[in-house]
Model the fold of this input.
Amino acid sequence: MLTPINQPRQINLGYNKPQIQLIQKLLPVMPHESLDSFFFWNSGAEAVEASIKLARHATGKQNIIVVQGSYHGRTFGTMALTKSKTIYGAGYAPLMVRTPHSRAMDGDRRSRS
Done:
């Protein structure tokens, strides 16, 4: 009988020549030799969703603070983080909870307009 630890996991891997060439260029400039694995996302929203999971796992906290006027994507999780236009999340409430927002940073050019 398989236990959760040794159950087979699904792995979908694929690569192409441009990715391999990019990795060959990145490896020599990585700040530490242990940083030798790369994952290429399908979309920016997928990367944002993964960063939400990583941040919550690493901190043990649920809140994700976003900047007012930001755009993160149109997936369910990223709609909750997008504060540039309310239309992106219209009709899908309730969105992901605990996503307080703040005003743009002082150094952000958009906050000066």
The chain has a mean pLDDT of 78. The first strand starts at residue 66 and ends at 67. The chain has three helices and two strands. The two ends are 63 Å apart (CA to CA).
